[in-house]
Amino acid sequence: MADPAWRAVRGRVLTFLAPPLGAGDGASYRYLADGLVLARDGRIAAVGEASPLLATLPADTPVDHYPDGLVLPGFIDPHIHFPQTQVIASYGAQLLEWLQKYTFVEEQRFADAAHAAEQAAFFFDELARNGTTTALAFCSVHPVSADAYFTEAERRGMGMLGGKVMMDRNAPPALTDTAQSGYDETKVLIERWHGRGRQRVAITPRFAITSTPEQLAAAGTLKREHPDLLVQTHLSENRAEIETVRRLFPEAAGYLDVYDRFGLTGERSLFGHCIHLTEAERRRMAETGSVAVFCPTSNLFIGSGLFDMGQAREAPAMRVAVATDVGGGTSFSMLRTLAEGYKVQQLLGRNWSALEAFHLATAGNAAALGLAGEIGTLEPGAFADLVVLDAHATPVMANRMARIDGNLEQELFVLMTLGDDRAVRATYAAGRLIHAAS
Ligand code: GUN
Ligand code: ZN
User: Fold this and answer.
1) pLDDT in tens, 61-70
2) Ligand that lies nearest to the alpha carbon of residue 209, given by its number in the listed order
3) Model-wide pTM > 0.85
4) Could you say which of 53, 308, 348, 372 would form a disulfide bridge with 367 (CB–CB 3.0 to 4.6 Å)?
5) Name one GO cellular component term (predicted).
């Protein structure tokens, strides 16, 4: 009998070593044309050329071989809404109307533990089918939604982050907590889930419009009391949203300053969207080490605007991440997300290379979550969270691949431009197969 603690995945192995400086940056990654990732007890024990590594393994070690497959660290989605799986594809509204008309209606259903559990199973199936092995998610205001989320993640051995949203105004009464109950319920979730196995709780004030100053202060208190927790919220997504924040917080210098005043900026804070930041706000994001999360499918679908990656990288450079933002976003696929991200940059007259895009979706997003070295990489010691991609998955992809002459960067560009869940051949969480294409 093979020792079940060991598992090997053989294929064309790719992992990033540093943020690529642009297209053609061969020093930014390691590629093995016939490589092996060896997992032991859920973590990567070794990565190297297949032949010599195989020779060191006990003969009965299980080896999953994908001769054409590209083996990468699993994708990371650092901004997604767990209760919005049935909000995707809601027609004809921009942010504030979209929230009231669709999202706040749907999220009320997550007061029901059975509904939350059923949707959690669907949510994690869908992440796995798309090669995403870690996500940072907004749950609904109901603690049972966060319990359902973490229970299902734990059951599958996936490392997930998330929190119940705190929202105590400008939402239906069935969807609001209070400054005190939002604080108390988050505390309970932290005690129950934070650091339990791979699960991590995040402080989650939805956005400035749905929190009173008292609630933002409570969120700031939580952050001070638990400095290792991430904070996630939304910032500067939509013009009408920014105007409303200005009216609600006239004393603040701007939208980011609302969060800053309550101690909610910093290296462990992730702000979804950040499309319409002023230069002063970009400087403050950079100074505080806060992360701007680019959500291209959402920004296009809700008509919010174009996030400029080139500008984000210029001094004062902001930390950035890239995410789906389902259900404002229209796909669970990080490949689809990268495709739309590329198109957004094209509309701004910029390029976004496949190397930069794949780096961001793996090691870059891991760094944004403060989990560099743990996930998003194939370095020994990291969790064996893997995705195996197939750039020939559809007729159009196969036909296009016939013309790339084995060029890895072109293959990555084909994958991100034409790929989706069909290009995901297998997904592993902590060395365990959680999805295999049929
Ligand atoms: N701003 C506040 N809540 C949300 C949300 O659920 N989705 C998006 N895209 N923006 C938000
Ligand atoms: Zn969002």
Assistant:
1) 999 999 999 9
2) 1
3) yes
4) 372
5) cytosol
